[in-house]
Design goal:
Elements lengths: L8 E5 L5 E7 L2 E6 L5 E5 L9 E4 L5 E7 L7 E7 L5 E6 L7 E4 L5 E5 L3 E6 L4 E7 L3 H5 L2 E3 L14 E5 L2 E4 L4 E6 L4 E6 L4 E5 L5 E5 L10 E4 L5 E6 L2 E6 L4 E7 L2
Antiparallel strand pairs: 1-2, 2-3, 3-4, 5-6, 6-7, 7-8, 9-10, 10-11, 11-12, 13-15, 14-15, 16-17, 17-18, 18-19, 20-21, 21-22, 22-23
Length: 257
Amino acid sequence: TPRGGKEMFATFLFPEGERVSVLEDRGAVVFRNSPTAVQIGALRPVNLRPSGVWILSDDCTLFAIAGQYRGDQGGLGIEVFSVIDGKLLAAAELPANSAWCGTFTPDDKQLLIGTQDSVEVFDLSEKNWVREIPFFQNGERDQGVATRGRIAGGFGLEGDAFFQTAPTTIFTKPAQVNRVALSRTGLLAAGGGDGVVRIVDFETSRPIKAFPRIEKEGGVELVAFTPDDKRLLYFVRGTLHIVDVANLGLATTSEKE
């Protein structure tokens, strides 16, 4: 299971090669050794529900949850914990209506959260959101496709994934950022629910390249850079695409076994 996925069960591979399962259990996030199922640790969110987006840093020292607040508070937030001692290091309300994925920067100084149409950047030292990186142009992110039906719970806002302009008309947003990866060289790749992988410069937010949806393929299921940052991998509906970062051209495509 990719790091930063929106699951209630996930498996992470720690640096020493230990395979660890993470699951929700009675209000806590529990870590278990996968082969033996022995519990090796647990984190209990302070104000968030334990389900949501789970994010583990590359060195496996930080663990973040992005999800809904408990009770009637409403809204979304993040909580970042130390895996070493389980202490809460930072918490904040998420300045967006959705959270689909996330990753830590390679230096563990910032947390990135993929939302409906952007990536929000949280600085762990400042304990605050420092900027938004949009992945859809202003015109694209605000337009939708009219469909007939009703939204359960009433009208949505134009910034939501679904918003309703009349009792029989719903507008759906183009896609969501459902996988994200950041290279040590400063390339930020986001895989969308529309099957498109978009690459921008992390420091300037300047668009660099977009790999379009291929025929009838679905949303991007995995985005990752190789450890040497020379290649970008993204997985869409049974096909693994491998991109040579040097020229940002499609190097090869291999079918899932």
